[in-house]
Amino acid sequence: MLDIVGQRLGEFEIVAYLGEGAHVHAYLAKQPSKNREVVIKILKSSLAKTQEFVERFKREAQAAVELNHPNIVPVYEYHQEGDILYIVEAFLTGGSLWDIFRKTPGAPLPIDKTISTLEDLGAGLDYAHEKGIIHGDIKPENILYSKAGRAALSDLGITKDIDQKAARSRDALAFGNPGYMSPEEWRGEPADARTDIYAIGILLFEMLTGQLPFDTVFTGSLAYTHLMHLVTKPIDLASLRPDLPPSVGDIIHKAMEKERDQRYPTLKAMVADFKAALKGDGKAPEKSERIETPAQPPSKPSLFAGIAQAITPKAESVAPPASQSVPKPSANGDAEAKPAWPGGEPVASKAVPAEMVPVYERANFWLMLLAFVVGFLVAQLLEASRDE
Q: With respect to CATH, is domain 8-90 assigned 3.30.200.20?
């Protein structure tokens, strides 16, 4: 953190220190030439180590400046003052989604606020995705509101692109809030537009319930969070919000599918389904067709990623036991078999009575957690032996 409050940085008068992110220190400042308040985000000195990085920052900052959408926080300009690299953003006075959650912990947002926020985020993200830009760090702190209550995305097109290892290495998880990271990010795979859609699914669940969509046991454990996103089905929305149509939970589940090909192709489609569901017109969303979206270059998978790939079940290589097929009405009224995969939907058959479903789910989770921990310890021992 630079002690520059009360001083000048270029033409900007630094008024107050706002806080620290994984990559930046943020300050409130005045820009006399424009007669406006702005936010100055100074990149941490540990990042700007090479000229290659500086040039990359300038390219990505320019791309952010060129984004022009009412639901994206404007980046006005960027500068370099000696070793200091910084961007200048609009200052929105309506606070953040995180501020709302903090003021009313555990409480859902009013439904009209949830609808308007989802609409705004969907419009901004679809616009950015069309431009080939992925956010990659969607979380309540990056959802800001104008004085009129319009939601806008902050930090879009900057932080993820300037550090390709961000949110993918074990040492960089301060960036990319683990509670909102997609399975592909945990596996060290390239992110694309559907990575952002996964995070929006989590945000929608949180706005509707006041909590994240996974069990709250060991929430401080990185390994636990890792496993939740990789193999565990989200909490059933109906158990927390029985007043909402069941199809709303289906929409969240589709946005949070483990395999990105099964998620919504756009936020516009997700928002449309959500609004229809609230009106009582919603049906279970259909499976998505495979889509091609811009992807970031892959980074070297972390140790966590290697273990995750080893323990994550692959649906195409596992045949479900015939005894675990659950009859489900088809479109013509006949019953069709629906396979119950490990870590998937609760099995309600003769093999597992309905009253035993919670026990089955918890036992399944603990077995997977044990496998993860054992795999992690073995990998650490192998690493240590190689070092010797």
A: yes
